[in-house]
Design a protein that fits this description.
The chain is mainly beta. Residues 1-21 and 808-814 have low confidence and may be disordered.
Length: 903
Amino acid sequence: MKKFLTISMILCISTMAIFSAPKKRFLVEEHTGAWCPPCGSVGKPTMEALIEKYPDEVIAVELHNASTGRVDPMAISEQQTVAGALGLTGFPYGSIDRMMFNDGQKNVFFIYPTSWDGVIAQLIPTTQPVVEVKLFYSINTSTRELSATIEANFLQAVAPAQNGELRFNVYVLEDNIIYSQAGNSSNFSHQNVCRTMLGGAWGTAGLIPNSVSSGQTYSHTYKYTLNQAWNIDNLKFVGIVQEYHSTYADVKKILNSVRGTQGAPSSELTSTGPTISVKATGTPFSKVFSLKNVSGERTTYRINEEVSARTPSNWTAKLITTNGIVTKSEKTQAAEITVDAGATVDFTLELTPGATLGIGDASIEVFNKYDPTGQRSSGKITAVSAEIQYCQINDYQESQYSLLSQMSSAGLTNPVELSNSEFEDVGSSLNNLSILVWNCGEKGSLTSSEATRINSAINDGINVFMVGAILANSTDASVKSMLNYAGVQFLKQAFQGAGDGKINIIGYQDDPISNGFDQSCTLINYLAPALKAVGPTAAPFLRFKNVDTVVAIRSTINETKVIVMGLNPFAITNSYERNNLVNKCIQWLQGVGPAISCVEDFGFTSTESGQTSEKTLTIENKGKSPLTVTDVEVEYEFSTNFMVKGSKNFTIPANQTYDLVLQFKPSYAIQYDSWIRIYSNAENAPIKQVNLTGTGKQASAGPVISLSVSNLSFTDVGVGTSDSKTFRINNTGNQDLTVTNINVPGAYTPLFSIDPTAFTVAAGANQTVTVTFNPTDVLSLETNLTITSNNKGGTVQMPITANAIVGVEDGSTVSDLLKLNAVPNPMTVNSKIEFTLNGNMAQQVEIVVLDASGRTVKTISNKSFEPGTYTFDLNSSDISSGTYYVIAKSNGYSTQLPLVVVK
């Protein structure tokens, strides 16, 4: 309905004195279509009159629509994105700076053309710009490459509401497009037609801070190859600074806009090859850029290097120029290159993934050092960790619909998020990927190329979880084919919830994912789909409570698992149940679940009192995911008679077994009946009880060894030092115990001292034995201490574990005698080692470099030094990247300095 608006602004607009410059311009975006008669008879003439009346205040843009059943070759997808988010109800309607107004009944973003003039007339005298926008562009007519540099000079402090963002955008417009218009002649000429938005519907994120101060300036250069079908002579460009928030529609307004000015560039920045690549940890991704000076004079260019916020902190970015290497260590680093007129200089941007798996970006911006407001050129590279196993594809637009936290809680370690376009570029190179979550959230949908990539992932054995409110609704043949391959057919949108959006979803009995699920949901934007399971392995697992309408299906394709959930999980109002359902979906992708199997009754042979017998209980995991045993509990009353030897928590892979060693040690000649309980994540029996039986019999004559401890452990003992442990050998028998030898295997004999090694222990008595660990090198070992005697049970062994580290050789404080320093540290090729010897007399000092295993890789010096400070050059050209230790030793003292080598 057409209405004249009495404007009541929802946003706050400051009233300020009017200045001739800078200028506030209002972006009027008309949503139109060649199929729409009123668009030609009302919308277009109104826009022409508006431009004529306000030539300096209004920038006109036509956003063409070609939704289902409509044909318009000028249509762009951004139109439907903006229209859907801001609530467009008809054509021709338009928005002014995407601001919200009140039409007397409700708040709206879109107003009818006959009201545009009145709104603009009220805005002009009351609105002053908060930011001045400039746009300079150039077009290489032979390659059709557009270079458009946009600049924002903030005249006021700006911080969007609700923690929103500030973004750049550039529109490409074309005039004089001849195409029919419904209700007009067939040779209708269309003007101000938006061909594309270089920053998408909502602009480019991450180029402007989300909160800026007055006087701050930011810029960005867009590179874009213009479509061959567009007439370059009829193109024009609009630069925009806008707000954006994924949730709040009223935080999407345009702050200011400007028409582009064509200008000759002073430089050309070019590169070849891909801008995104998959790289293993420690392997750099590099790209060579060529900077050509196309001005008429020798010019010094400044190159700013920056990493994105999503780049893990332990990744390394480098800018390698003819003047050296600039390593990224702060937010921004810079280099300078001087280039003769007409000459070209190459430099390299490098990004190396670190230990944290993820995705990261390194970018550069190049400009004339002495003309910082002039032309700017930019470049970027993106690296993805090759070791990624679990990945979420961001096709969901609104950040609150991310499932990364649920992926982590379901046991997926270090899940990484990629955009849908990034995955299309590099997905086939992620060879370690095992689970892929393609998240379309509330408004995302699949394209033909995305469907092809998902299909390839399934064929590569990658388990896939597709989720989204309109994920399955596509009419695209490739998408329908991929879904059909995954066992899913879209029938229609279900009518349940059409009134108030309230629906109830339930699971299927005994289903490994949804058994017992029964929850209310609130639809957000769309009705739920009605799906059909097709194929022998496809099974529905979620449906409407009162009708047999399926909304989620799981299937298995050549042992690869696929889930299609045609419902945004965030429609489930109970967050606990929502997260639990998503967790079960992901766990099902990993395997149906662990299942424990073992005997229920377990008996020991008759055993003399005081003696110990052992027997193995075999536990089998018959499930398809790891079985994690968290504890093995013995009935408390008999916990000294029935015992578990070794760890009580362990994991059994799918379809494998684990031998649990149980011991029986009767105290008396009686019958023992007890049990153990095995606690695990088994779906069939999380608490598995096994009955235990054993018979004790009267002990016969003879000596019996009983040890006071079950093992000896030497932890982190410094090389050159020692550590001692004691234990008692008890004779619980009724005859003398004669120990003839106590030893460790020959290879470890030099590392251990044992005292005593031979002795006699009377019945009921005991002997203390001391074992000393004397490491001479960095090592970790596991061995056994063997006790040879006339024990009734024969030879006895006690496990020993020992760990030796690089350390101070005695307990004295070495900082007063020896000091070490290295500059730089970390080092690449050369470092200076500074050594200080304190005291009042000369000392023999040995300085060496050890690797992490304790092996000497370099000897820096070994001679006598007078007290003082000395400097040595260390070259790392013949050693690899890693952590090393510089060790200084003197007169029984030593000190160490960690040294990191980065190549």
